[in-house]
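Ligand: adenosine-5'-diphosphate. Inputs:
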Amino acid sequence: MKIGVIGDDFTGSGDIANTLAKAGARTVQYVGTPIGKLADGSIEAAVIALKTRSVAADDAVAQSLTACRWLVVNGAEQIVFKYCSTFDSTPEGNIGPVAEALLAELDAPLALVCPAFPANGRTLYNGHLFVGDRLLSESGMENHPLTPMTDPDIRRWLSLQTRLKVGHLALQSLRSGDAEAALSLAKRDGEKLIVADAISNDDLMALGRIAKTHRLVTGGSGIAMALPGNFGIRPAVEGRLQFDGVCGPAFILSGSCSSATRTQIAAYCRSHPSMRLDAEDALDPDAVVASCLNFLITHKGSGPLVYSTAEPSEVSAAQARHGRERLAALFEAIFAELAVKAVTAGFRRLVVAGGETSGAVASAFGASALEVGPEIDAGVPVLILDGEPRLAFALKSGNFGACDFFERALHALKGDAS
Ligand SMILES: Nc1ncnc2c1ncn2[C@@H]1O[C@H](COP(=O)(O)OP(=O)(O)O)[C@@H](O)[C@H]1O
Ligand SMILES: O=C(O)[C@@H](O)C(=O)COP(=O)(O)O
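Predicted complex:
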């Protein structure tokens, strides 16, 4: 293995696994840190999907270090810490504390910090993160149920999370070819986490090449585009392998309240059976799982959707009544149990919207490894769990995907080209 990735959530891990696979790396995505040795010596990139974005910082650090040690023992020459392209975190962490621990573990002098993902509208300029033409803090992310992003200056936000000195690699330095010199100066000045501007794929490719000798790289999936090339890995000339897909009934679950998901839900509900859960439903998990399962089975064959997705004002009112963490945990547990029961009832294709929600659902199957299939929309691949039964997943990041994502995902999981 050349590249080892520690993903702080499941959709994000699929996102970077997709990037590495497109860049030609033979990639596998693990659900949590595997036990035992890497069996397949031909794997070039391993992505360990954790669910550490919203847990306590010391727990996130401990889990990330365990993942890092497994990757290093199994040959990883470079470690990537993957977080969200919207830098989802709170002032208490977890990006700073985890990056800090990984730097120490790998004895690395510094690491780049670059969430930019231009293909999905996330660009970083003068240390500020934009989503499309909006600053992060005006993009809708300021209303996220768990990690409201209220400051677009990534240098300032990261500095709240770490005692390490935070530096900045400006776009002008990168584009004028001064980046190596700027990083040497940063190292001399004791800067350890270097927020790097990037507004295009070419910028990300340049940053990736600069990171060739770095033991640790941190960022969104964009920063990984150039990394396989540093190891002499090239994309297959003939393109992706044929993907057979998985047949059988499909359903969609959404615990994402992000704006892209809200648009996708509104579009899908117009012509498909859907069932909406509200916060009061979540207080009686057994009853709600039973009624949702009944709904899914009744509409088997029509791609039924169950969602707790709600508008920001509704989410904050419900959180004020019942508690943010409590509601999140209740919904996640409900979706996880429902997914397992639906598979027992014969469903085989699963589309899940939301990173935390996807983490809860995918973990419930006790799987260890997922194969990376074709890309459905930028940053969202098909993932295959080659078990008994064989299942196909689309784990969609909250703000990814076009308006008709759900419908196209159902086709993609079957192996139909979009
Ligand atoms: N109606 C709701 N009220 C409060 N919290 C909710 C509601 N619906 C979902 N949640 C919680 O909000 C969080 C959404 O996060 P996530 O699944 O990562 O979505 P995204 O990818 O859009 O960020 C989850 O923990 C989920 O359980
Ligand atoms: O980098 C990204 O935006 C995604 O890969 C990601 O991490 C998304 O997280 P969620 O929006 O919480 O699904």
